C-alpha cells in the first residue's frame, strides 16, 4: 500500500499537519507539528504525529490527531 502512496518530504507533511490542525476549532493556534516515522508490517501509513506545539488539552489533541490521520493515509513519508 505504501508503494502506491505519493511520497512527500517531512517538511511538506509537517506543514500540512499544521494547516489541518489550525482548521480544527480546537486546534487553532497550533504553531508546529512534528511527525515520526513508523515501520509498519505489510501496508499502512509509515508516519504519525509525534508532537503538537503548543500542547493541546487532551480532547483537542485527539480531535487534531484524528483529522491528521486522514493525511497519513494519503501520503507516505519519503526519504531515508
Amino acid at each position: 500500500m505504501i508503494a502506491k502512496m505519493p511520497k512527500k518530504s517531512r517538511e511538506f507533511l509537517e506543514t500540512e499537519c499544521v494547516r489541518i490542525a489550525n482548521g480544527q476549532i480546537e486546534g487553532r493556534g497550533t504553531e508546529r507539528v512534528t511527525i515520526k516515522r513508523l515501520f509498519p508490517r505489510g501496508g499502512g501509513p509509515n508516519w504519525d504525529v509525534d508532537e503538537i506545539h503548543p500542547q493541546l488539552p487532551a480532547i483537542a489533541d485527539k480531535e487534531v490527531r484524528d483529522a491528521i490521520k486522514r493525511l497519513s493515509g494519503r501520503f507516505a513519508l519519503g526519504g531515508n
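The chain is about 35% helix and 20% strand. The two ends are 18 Å apart (CA to CA).
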